[in-house]
Amino acid sequence: MYKHILVPMDGSPLSDQAVDYAATLAKAVGARVTLIMVTSPFPALLYSPGFVALPDSYVEELDAAAAAALAREKQVVAAKGVPCEAIQVEHEQVYQAIIDAARNKGCDLIVMASHGRRGLSAVMLGSETLKVLTHSAVPVLVFRGKS
């Protein structure tokens, strides 16, 4: 069945549930998991001459928040006895980064939440889910949450 599952995450409660679901699925089928958090670069327009300067701490805060969320979820997956890798990618197009990671890592399934949140991490899984569904050659399982 599935050998390698990619799980995009953004640190939201629904994303956390999707990670747990994917880890359970991976355990059942003997697959490994790769967690991915995609961050958007600071908009160039905002730090062009005559505009707002790029805060020195922006990249550090973004990386620290992503690393903390990935580490937390990696522990969830590892606690189920599932091999897990966690990666952070900066990309202007979140859906494209997810699709590229699935292809580059040789994933045969993407498990992602039906919607996410927007925030400091600038990760958007909501509309991104639809984009991944319509553009990915890899099967996508959309996790809608536990009732």
Arrangement of strands in the largest sheet: 3-2-1-4-5
Number of domains: 1
Number of helices: 4
Order of helices and strands: EHEHEHEHE
Overall shape: it is: globular
The computed structural class is: alpha/beta
- By CATH, the architecture is named 3-Layer(aba) Sandwich
Helical fraction: 40-55%
Q: What is the distance, rounded to the nearest whole angstrom, between the alpha carbons of the first and last residues?
A: 26 Å
Rg from alpha-carbon coordinates: 15 Å
How many strands in all? 5
| Average of pLDDT | 86
Can you give a write-up of this model?
With 147 residues, this protein is α/β, with parallel strands linked by helices. It has a single domain (4-143), classed as HUPs (Rossmann fold, 3-Layer(aba) Sandwich), CATH 3.40.50. The protein contains 4 helices and 5 strands; from the N terminus they run E-H-E-H-E-H-E-H-E. The protein has helices spanning 13-29, 58-79, 94-105, 126-135; strands spanning 4-8, 32-39, 84-90, 109-113, 140-143. The chain has a 5-stranded parallel sheet with strand order 3-2-1-4-5, with helices on both faces. Strand 1 (4-8), helix 1 (13-29) and strand 2 (32-39) form a beta-alpha-beta unit. Helix 1 (13-29) runs parallel beside helix 2 and helix 3 (94-105) crosses helix 4 (126-135). The two termini are 26 Å apart. The model is unreliable at 116-126 (pLDDT under 50).
